[in-house]
Automatic annotation (TrEMBL):
The keyword Nucleotide-binding applies. PANTHER family: TRIFUNCTIONAL PURINE BIOSYNTHETIC PROTEIN ADENOSINE-3 (PTHR10520:SF12), TRIFUNCTIONAL PURINE BIOSYNTHETIC PROTEIN ADENOSINE-3-RELATED (PTHR10520). Its main location: cytoplasm. This is Phosphoribosylformylglycinamidine cyclo-ligase. The keyword Signal does not apply. It is an enzyme of class 6 (ligase).
Length: 364
């Protein structure tokens, strides 16, 4: 009689999780993480927590910590479809640190989270490469993160990325609505394209409805659609910090989901209104392309996409030229697009804390 052998034991790898692949991914990403350091960062990756020496905060009279958490939305679907993963990290870092600097806070450190259906070490390392390189641009340290393998929850080639960041600002230097004055000007900073918002609309219009492929060369864009859609988010952090320190800038707004008006309203006091002139800039061709191909009404477009403005500063009019010079020194194109006025409360007058867009973009 033949004795029946017991079934071999189940393993984590048989369930779809590869510890070896995770270890290899860590080894591949180390070279990039080492580039994204600050002097305050203690140790390296591999511990249970990232360590950052906070003794530098002793030099502050009243240090205010600022924190932000975010992801990159459905833009990851474009990266996955094109199998290009080293730029998506710029979008993540841009979404995080540029939310911090609007209050004048300097980004100190960042942690990331990558969830994927299957760990492909080279792909994970490429994502981290982009995050690390973007941290260098922003001046913050990448102190740690997590890569999680979720078979059955995500497809083998699917992933999502998120992160959080912490910064600090002296209480006396905190920017915000309380500083905004009538007569201030609104300085717009050019976006590099769509950044990382509104991709559900863009994908619906250009990929699903129009049926365009990512490989399609689009004359208006001067490159393929995929190349345009993967254009990394501009990181304004160092430019905006310089602006806050060297000019009479009273508030800033990061133009993300919701568009220019809705985000600018977030930093206006109830007693003030902003009037912006569309005629002061021409949005990049991708915005007009989405508008025309999808027959998207301009109001809906402006509530969804940044329409060419990635960040704005509210600055004393006397400092407008100096502010633009500071931004130019960081390679950021800027222009005065509007001004701040008093909310009068008169019948038919704009309500406080509101933004009015007037005129039309040249060529629209």
């Amino acid at each position: 009689m033949t004795e029946q052998q017991p079934p071999s034991g189940a393993t984590y790898e048989a369930a779809g999780v590869s510890i070896d692949a995770g270890d290899k991914a860590v080894e591949l990403m180390k070279v990039w993480i080492d580039k994204a350091r600050r002097p305050e960062m203690l140790g390296g990756i591999g511990g249970f927590a990232g360590l950052f020496d906070a003794s530098a905060l002793k030099s502050f009279d009243r240090p205010i910590l600022a924190t932000s958490a975010d992801g990159v939305g459905t833009k990851v679907a474009i990266a996955q479809a094109m199998d290009i993963h080293h730029t998506i990290g710029f979008d993540l870092v841009g979404m995080l640190v540029d939310d911090l600097v609007v209050c004048g806070a300097e980004p100190l450190f960042l942690t990331d989270y990558i969830a994927t259906g299957r760990v492909v070490p080279e792909r994970v390392a490429a994502i981290v490469q982009g995050i690390a390189e973007a941290c260098v641009q922003a001046g913050c340290a990448l102190v740690g993160g997590e890569t999680a393998e979720h078979p059955g929850l995500l497809g083998p080639d699917e992933y999502d990325v998120a992160g959080s960041t912490t910064g600090v600002v002296e209480a006396a230097d905190l920017l915000g609505p309380g500083r905004v004055e009538a007569g201030d000007v609104v300085i717009a900073m050019a976006s590099s394209g769509l950044h990382s918002n509104g991709y559900s609309l863009v994908r619906h219009v250009l990929l699903s409805t129009a049926g365009w492929s990512l490989e399609r060369h689009v004359d208006e864009l001067g490159r393929t659609l995929g190349e345009e859609l993967l254009e990394p988010t501009t990181i304004y952090a160092k430019a905006c910090l310089d602006l806050a320190r060297s000019t009479a800038t009273h508030a800033m707004s990061h133009i993300t989901g919701g568009g220019l008006a809705a985000n600018l309203e977030r930093v206006l006091p109830d007693s003030k209104v902003a009037t912006l002139d569309r005629g002061t800039w021409t949005p990049a061709p991708i915005f007009d392309l989405v508008r025309q191909v999808g027959s998207v009404e301009q109001a809906a477009l402006e509530r969804t996409l940044n329409c060419g403005v990635g960040m704005v500063a509210i600055t004393a009019a006397a400092d407008a030229d100096r502010a633009r010079s500071v931004l130019a020194g960081h390679g950021v194109d800027s222009w005065v697009c509007g001004e701040i006025g008093e909310a009068t409360g008169a019948v038919g007058a704009p309500a406080g804390g509101t933004v009015t867009l007037r005129g039309q973009h040249p060529g629209w």
